[in-house]
Amino acid sequence: MRTLAVVCLLSLLATIAGAADPSQYVVTMPSPTATSIAVEAQLTLQGDVIAMIVHGSPQLINGQADLVEAITVTGADGRHIEVTDLGMGDWKLADVTAGERVTLCYRVRLAHGDYDWNAGIDEMAYRTDDGLFFTGSSLFIIPGTSNDTAATVVFDLPEDWHASAPWDRSGKLYEIPDLNTLIRNCFFVGTHREETLVLDGFTFTLVLTENLWQKRDLVVATMEPVLPAARRMFGGMPLKNRYLAVISQSDRSDGGAFSDSYSMLIKGEADETSAVVWGHGITHELVHFWNGHSMAPTSQLEEWFKEGFTDYITLLIRSREGLDSRDIIFRKLENSQRRFLLSRMMMGIEENMREAGKNKHRNRMLVYGGGTLVGFALDVTIREATANERGLDEFMAAFFAEHTEGSGSLDVNPYARKAGLRVDTMMDEFYISERADATAAERAIGESILGAPQRR
Ligand SMILES: [Zn+2]
What we know:
The protein has 456 residues and is an alpha+beta fold.
């Protein structure tokens, strides 16, 4: 009995020691024009399945795992381990045991730009004139479902290429505390320029693709006022204060926030006029560091809160900081009502707002537009109930069950009135403006939400 217990204890200790070994990745880009990127990894297996966390694409059944080629796995004893593709980014290894250290080699075909992605290419991988953008989940195969083990990454890149990544680095070795931080972040490798900015206690490593560098001052001026405003609103710093921002020009505008990084695509000319779109996007991604990452939803049922409230807070901050004119702010409020109604009337989406989050890309108009309206309704309701002493600023983490549990209708009108605004409407068109006969109390609610009226 005692011998058995000792043997069990020893094998348990071996497993624990094995689990603590970091996953080690070497990423090799053989030449600037290579059509694939190679990964060699030393992994300690958690079971007999290794995995890539895949994102949906209408054209690729297994998401970005369909771009993985030439997988081989070798045991520590040099034996060849057979690999079976289970689909959806899972691969089963034959005759292995948990805790075993293996060598995994594969290539990822650099063809992400040829496909559509439900989450947008800004959350996948793409190529620019100056290099390659990746999210960790598009490149790294991990040793199982438990993501709390550490990892290291070394980039072996063409001469005059370098890497910009949000992880700690000693020499050429990136040291990553856990596999979540590895796969849920983005990075860029290439001949690009990077700049480190310290803004309001945050350290940003800024990567702008080549054609955006001339807009650098405008991009920074767009970010700068957002951080102190968001810090005031949420009453403190987000969990992290070091971020990598990768901003590229593209044929669509999109953005994704990760735990230590964010990715933005700017469509067309990045100037002050188009900032109504891309500046909104940057502000939205910055607000996600508080609402979305520090305060992370536990399920997709809270997407309306994560996305909708983030968009409403984006609107507030851009209004109060004078980043958007009052006119644009009204257009944005109008759009949220229109998106809500169109999702119900035209698209026939019947799920309630929480359920809609399970398919947030299809239900985008309901999740973002409806969530923004809930934010506005909650803000005005709190202000009215507290003699304008409090508002959404003081109540960010609250849950607004009445409007979100049901699939009932939302109407911007009563809230706009109480905020000193009027709504003129015809069918699915909404026009918001200041109401001439607003009382001082109503006007005060409006000003607490949007800031003092602008004279433009
Ligand atoms: Zn978002």
